[in-house]
Design goal:
alpha+beta; Alpha-Beta Plaits; four-stranded antiparallel sheet; DUF1330 domain-containing protein; DUF1330; Dimeric_a/b-barrel
Length: about 100
Amino acid sequence: MPALWIAHVTVTDEESYGKYAKLAGPAVAKHGGKFIARGGRYVQLEGKDRPRNVVAKFESVEAAEACYHSPEYQEALSHARNASERELLIVETDE
């Protein structure tokens, strides 16, 4: 079943986060992920407001998790760790 990778982000260091974004896109694509939402318009109804919201679709939870743990994504993530506050989750979908 397909899965969505959902990230809610507050960027605290634009320069470093830019390095993350440059590397993360190719890592996601390499693992079959496709971005379906990236930082567009949103409405916060509950919880902590994070101004950047990203959704990528993968063929399965396992594919999304493999992407996260891949050397390519971990390299990208090394630039985001001290440049943002974020939550990231993977959720299986019906479609």
